[in-house]
Write a structure and sequence with these properties.
CATH architecture: Orthogonal Bundle
Distance between the termini: 70 Å
Largest sheet: none
CATH class: Mainly Alpha
CATH topology: Helix Hairpins
Number of domains: 1
Structural class: mainly alpha
Length: 126
């Protein structure tokens, strides 16, 4: 029985960072998620988010981006194994994309709950 050789930890991190870099550089939606994350960070600094609000925003960034990475990997695997259009391949790709969409919509709603009152107070409406 052959013993599995695992990559050293630093190589595992390298592979993971390469996957993140590949997704950011090749996937339009990941670029959009990153862009909105930068805007949220800028708005959060201006509006002086609390520690709890920062934790919520960071958790949502992580959730949406992690799901986008999973979605990208599912799409790549499906494309690798399905040479022609198949109903099950479509279900796999569509449901993975749907998971990202649900997380992004919920993140936007939570963002509005956090930022709209702070923004209105900042401009003097509240």
């Amino acid at each position: 029985m052959k013993k599995d050789k695992k990559a050293p930890l630093y190589k595992s991190f390298g592979y993971a960072f390469q996957g993140i870099y590949t997704c950011i550089s090749k996937e339009r939606n990941m670029k959009i998620h990153c862009g909105f994350s930068v805007l949220v960070v800028i708005a959060g600094i201006i509006l002086k988010l609390s520690v709890t609000e920062w934790c919520i925003c960071l958790t949502l960034f992580g959730l949406v981006m992690a799901l986008e990475l999973v979605n990208t990997s599912i799409e790549a695997v499906v494309d690798l194994v399905a040479e022609e259009r198949k109903p099950l391949a479509k279900i796999a790709k569509d449901t993975a994309a749907g998971a990202v969409l649900i997380a992004a919509i919920m993140a936007a709603i939570i963002g509005c709950i956090i930022f709209v009152p702070k923004g209105l107070a900042f401009i003097g409406v509240l």
